[in-house]
Every structure is written in C-alpha cells, then in structure tokens.
Amino acid sequence: MTDHKPMVTTRRRFLLGAAGVAGGAALMTLLPAGRAGATPAAMQAAIKAVIGSAPMREGRVKIELPPLVENGNAVPLSIAVESPMTDADHVKAIHIFTEKNPQPNVASFHLGPRAGTANIATRMRLADTQFVVAVAEMSDGSFWRDEIEVVVTLAACLEES
C-alpha cells in the first residue's frame, strides 16, 4: 500500500511555477518565427520536375484569379485550356504552382478526352502576394502556361519553422 500525501501549494511553489511559465513565454518571443514557404526557385524546380526539358509555350491557358485578395484562406481559381478534347488532341493534365506557399506544387488535375472541356474551378490558399502559374500538359507532349500575380492582404498558409 502506498502512502499518498496531498501536494500542498505553497506561496513559494506558486511563484516558482509562475516564473517558469513567464520565462518560457519570454523565450518564445525571442525565437525566430517565420513562414514555411517555397521560393521562386523552388517553384521553377517543381515546374521542371513536371515538364522535364520540354519547352513551355505561352497561350492556350487562361487563369482567372482575383488580382487583389483580402483573405488568402479561400481564393477562387479557375483555369481554362483551349483544346478540342478529342482522342487525338486533348489536355492530359493541368498543374498549379505558387512561389510562396509551403509547397510550390499546389494541385494537379488529370483529364482525358472524355472530360469534354478542359476547365477546372477550385479554391486555394495563398500564403502571401505572389505569382500563380498554371501549366497544361497536352496529349502531343507540349506544355502551355499562364501566370498571374495576386496581391494578398491577409496571408494564409502560415506555419512556424
């Protein structure tokens, strides 16, 4: 049988505990807090991982994104690609990249000729004012792109590092 004695909180124990909590809080303010995010170079590397050494062309892809976003937590995004969507000529995939989110490759949508149209609509989080790039991979192996700069006043995707 063990003998349990109730722990008595004395003034001294209370003050030591409060000092420990206050000291821990003070140390947290001294530690560097930052955003975990990609960089423009990381975004370019992510694009290169998708397209390899293939050239990218401008055109055929159209991003619709508000140029000024008040809150980066749910930003509406739509992408349309000009394509007849036939067996011989269709969009295989649409890839979305950002330069300042925690991960540069935001999403990839895989399509085929049975999709009928090469249009996607979604919402995304944006960490800060940045460029958003959409890359369309076509059935003939070509890649087409569009980019747009979005100004974000209240950032999302914040993580402590």
Can you characterise this structure?
This protein has 161 residues and is of the alpha+beta class. It has one domain: Immunoglobulin-like (Sandwich), CATH 2.60.40.2470. Helices cover 20% and strands 37% of the residues. The chain contains two helices and nine strands. Strands 1, 3, 5, 6, 8 and 9 form a six-stranded mixed sheet that branches. A hairpin with a 4-residue loop joins strand 8 and strand 9. The radius of gyration is 25 Å and the shape is elongated. About 4% of the residues have low confidence.
For the structure shown, list the relevant keywords:
6-stranded mixed sheet; 161 residues; Immunoglobulin-like; alpha+beta; elongated
Number of helices: 2
In total, how many domains does the architecture comprise?
1
- The low-pLDDT segments are 29-35
| Main structural class | alpha+beta
Q: What is the highest CATH level, the class?
A: Mainly Beta
**Rg calculated over all Cα atoms:** 25 Å
What is the CATH superfamily label? SoxY domain
CATH architecture: Sandwich
How many distinct beta strands? Answer: 9
The succession of helices and strands, N to C, reads HHEEEEEEEEE
